[in-house]
Amino acid sequence: MTTKRWKRCVVGPQTEQMLKLGHLWIIRDRFTDQWPPGASGERIALHGGDGTLLAYALRDDDRRIVARVIGWPPREKAPRLDEEWFHVRLEAALRLRHIHIDLDLTDAYRLVNAEGDLLPGLTVDIYGEFIMLQLYSHMWEPFREPLVQALQRLIRPQGIYEKFRPRKTRALEKKGDKRYSSLLLGQQAPNNLRVRENGLLFEVNMNHGLHTGLFMDQRQNRKDIMPFCEGKRILNLFSFTGAFSVVAAASGAAEVTSVDASTQYQNRARNNFEINRLDSRRHQFIVGDCHKVLDRFAQEGKGFDMVIMDPPSFSTVGKNRFTTSGGTANLVAAALDVLEEGGCLITSSNHQKVDVAEYLKELRRGALQAATSLRIIQTSGQGPDFPFLVTCPEGRYLKYVVAIKG
Q1: Where in the chain is the domain with CATH 3.40.50.150?
Q2: pLDDT tens-place string over residues 184-221
Q3: Residue range 215-405, CATH number
C-alpha cells in the first residue's frame, strides 16, 4: 500500500522529538490545531517540518491526544489495517503470553495491552472461552470488523464482547444503564462465568458492570504472596470481589478479614470462596468504610500479621473521600496501627499520574505518622501480560509494594 490513503499532517518540533524517541501519542498543540479537519480513525501520515515522513498514525478525538502511532517508517510499510495486519500483531502478543504465563493454570489474561502491544488505545482480555475488547479511543471503530475476524481466526472464542472506556470512567458510572459492554459475535457468556488464575477459580461477569470482577494485572502479585500466608491473620482492605482473600485462604491463612464498602462485592467474594471449596464461615467479610473499620480495630486492640490494601484511585464512601495523592499516607498510618511488629504491609495503586517515587513518599509520610519504621522488601508492578514500552512510560501504572513494619 502507498501513502495515498494517508492524509499528510505536519507536526511541530517538540512532537517530532517525541516521535524520534519512540512515543506513540501526539499531544494537541498549535501545530496539530492547523491540521485539516478529519474524523476519528482517519489514517494520517505524520511529517516533520522538513518534510520527512516520521510515523503512521490514526486520528483520535480525545481533547488531549489527537492521534496515536501505529507504524514506523522506514522499517514498516504503511499499515494495511486489514485482517492479516491485525493477525500479525495479535499473534505476536499471544506468543509473548505463552512464553511468560503458565496458561495450564490460568485462562484469564490480557492478550493486548494497548501501547505495550503496539495497538494504542485498545486492550483485549481473555476470559476462558470469551473475549472482551476495550476501546479507549473511537479511532479503532472503523476497523472493528478486521480486528474481530483476526481474533476469531487466532483464538476461536465462543463470544466476543466490546466495551468503550472513556478517560473519565466515573461519568459512565453515573449513567442508569449498567451493561457497559455489548456482544459483538457468538454466544452470550453466563453472568457467573468461571475462569482460572494460578489454579484457583473466580467468577466474572461479562454482561454487567464497569469491571468484570477480576483485576488480572495483580495475578503475579497474588501468586507471590502464596508462600507467606500459612497460619497468618490477614486483613484485606478494599477487597473488591476477594481475589487476594481467596489466595490467602487457599494458601493456609488462619483467618482472612475482607473489608469493602459494597455488599454486592462482598457477596461475590463469599461466592469465590465457596467455588474454591473454602469455608467462608471461617473468615470475616465486613461491609463498611475501610478507614472506620481500621479505627475500630485499633480501638479494640485487634492485630494482623499481614495487611493488604489496593484502593481505587478515587472513591467516595458516605462523607469520606479517598484519593491516591494525599490519602495514601493516612491509610498507611491507620493500617500500621493494626499491623503487628514484623508484620507485612502490602499496598498498591493503579493511579497513572502518581509515579513510584511519589508513591513511596506517601508511604514514608504514613510511616512517620504512625511513628514506626517501614522496610520495603519488594516493589513491582503489573504482570507480564501488561507490558509497557520503554518509550511510553505512561504504560507503567501499577505500583505494588511489600514492606515490613519495624
Answers
A1: 215-405
A2: 999 999 999 999 999 999 999 999 988 999 999 999 99
A3: 3.40.50.150
